Amino acid sequence: MSSHREAPEMAKDPVADGTDVYAFVSPDRPDTVTLIANFIPLQKPDGGPNFYEFGDDVLYEIHVCNTGSGEPDVTYRFRFETRIRNPKTFLYNTGPIADIGDETWNRPQHYTVTRVRHGNKSVLGTGLACPPVNVGPRSTPDYASLGAQALHTLGGRSVFAGQRADAFHVDLGSVFDLGALRPFNEAHLISMPAMNGVNAVQSYNVHTIAIQVPITELTRGGARPTDPLDPKAVIGVWATASRRQGRVYDSKQGRYVDHGPWVQVSRLGNPLFNEVIVPMAEKDRWNAVGPSGDVRYEKYVNRPELARLLPVLYPGVFPNLAAYDRPRADLNAILLTGIPQGVVPGFQNYTGPVQADMLRLNVAVPPADDPNPLGLVGGDAAGFPNGRRIEDDVVTVELRAVAGLTIPLVDPSYTPDGAASAVQDGTTDTNAPLLDAFPYLGLPGGGYQTEPGTTAAS
């Protein structure tokens, strides 16, 4: 959550597990769009000596659809290569790393970026350096500098791949304890004292792939729309990870060797879609297919399990939601087709009748001067579900939508329950502050600086 350990098989393969996807018009470069895909969830910063890194055996991709088909029209592919400088030491680094080219870093990673547009491949950059992870003040004494050295310019584009602080926030410990929300503990079927939410992602890092490209590289026909009602202004975005079809352990080499074509094992578009909408028995299948076939999951969007559970878990709090027995056309629009023109005045991010789980971004909506983390439901059309900014509070937005707050957009006869506009898990981003410029995500937590948390059995 957003997509951390969201499916049984992906929970066993964190290197290929996508955690969050972001797509937004860059606030400091509004002629560009920033696309971000995070992988490898819940990284403890002090997890050495084998620290976290991208998989050399994984194909990471960010896809863009500009035709409404749910199929990629533009794809950015990332392949990584790791080497060991000194095979005679167990150490990640043998001294301070002041530069990402220092010989003291024993396990550097580099990568290649390839753009695929309508089947035509173009290599945008090779041998691009990642930064090391944030080991600590002795090993990585100026981590901000190391991160800055890993920013690469590729002909009007910017790209970064490396460790960052996880900006997603959610109270995992409470939500998965029978759907509890700590601020509403007293109203729960199993009542407990109300309290503030606890960010379960605090102090954890992720590995980020970020690319900033001109808007005209992503839109149909290379357009630069200025009218939000222009159909060409809307793009769909999702990310995937793939592995080779076959994997055999070679005892002579002492490692696994991969064979065959690439097979998708992970994908992510809208936050929480596979996590909360798709039933457990179908989650791995969802990860293996593309969004163009998501009509098979329409029934789960139209009648989501969580909407049925809320009135049961919080007796008497959601009577109107409990009585509502129509398909959730509001959620269908938000998650599967985009919001058509006429629902929100002056706005749309409709991609057509093909039902596909994609982040839908209207690139003609300019960045907000004062972003509201509740995005569109908070009156800020530049935020989720119009794409997704890093600071958007998607858990609260989606909880309120599922609780019925957005039903009147398509069914004016419905009156939301009072709690629908207040429900939340009560968390905020408690990791490093976001940056003002690309790649925007904050610096990762350091291993030496991290203090273990506390646990209790009862």
Automatic annotation (TrEMBL):
InterPro entries linked: DUF4331
Superkingdom, natural source: Bacteria
Database matches in Pfam families: DUF4331 (PF14224)
Protein name listed in UniProt: DUF4331 domain-containing protein
